[in-house]
Amino acid sequence: MLPRPASYADHSTTPPDLEAPGAKTWITRGANLVIAVSDVTAGTVLARDEQPDEYMVFMAAGAATIQAGDESIVAAAETLTIVPPGASRVTAASDARVVRVFSPRAGDLAARACNAGVYADGAPECAPIVPWPTPPDGFRLRQYVPLAYEKPETNMRIFRSTNLMVNVMTRRDGPRDPTKLSPHSHDDFEQCSVVLEGDYVHHLRWPWTPDQTTWRDDEHVTIGAPSVTVIPAKVVHTSNNVGPKRSWLLDVFAPPRMDFSKKPGMVLNAADYPVPAEG
């Protein structure tokens, strides 16, 4: 089976996939995830009435109040909140840019994704989401401030839930050294990159098969903020920010990555979410 095409969603050049009073939302999906990026005005509510599993809310700009059940939490800019299953509301306290990360069980959003047709076959090349163990203290609102963690050895700030994993990269104030890129691929899961600031070039190389007529040319796609790029499984890829602008990127995976989770200290909220038993 040939890897499917990549999806590039540049929100600066395309209309929103969902528009309501006070909110414009761009939706992009992958095999196991749905990314909804919303530009909202103060007072706007982003509601989920019967969300069947956890989702994540990253405040790229502005602030909001997040409610779930009897709980409520203030979400300032640059915070990451994991929202439990059930009914929930994100109410903007100011004009804001809200990045929400769901599994495809948010079927209403998955169906509205700009690239929904790319996944009409169900993406059998990707391992399905099998929920990881429930947190010992149960499902509840959990909030983190990724950029407050001091980790001078890496620019990665990784968090997981039972179904998703987000890597909030630290900002780059200058272009990435082109002699120190990191081309790699993933056998059975995708990588989704959300550009929050600046401009990036995503470099993709599809594997060759014995049938030369199926070979794809390499892709080197420049894309700015805000945007979402979904990189298929098995495709060699790397990215670098370019130009003088400050740059900022989120990477999203689903299900959570076991390779990252096995490295001590790499997942910053590992104490909240146990890994599955092996065997």
Automatic annotation (TrEMBL):
Matches recorded under PANTHER family: H2HPP ISOMERASE
Q: Where is this region: Disordered?
A: 1-21
Q: Which InterPro entries match?
A: Bacilysin_H2HPP_isomerase, RmlC-like_jellyroll, RmlC_Cupin_sf
SUPFAM superfamilies registered for this protein in UniProt: RmlC-like cupins
Provide the species name.
Answer: Rhodoplanes roseus
> What is the protein name stated in its UniProt record?
Cupin 2 conserved barrel domain-containing protein
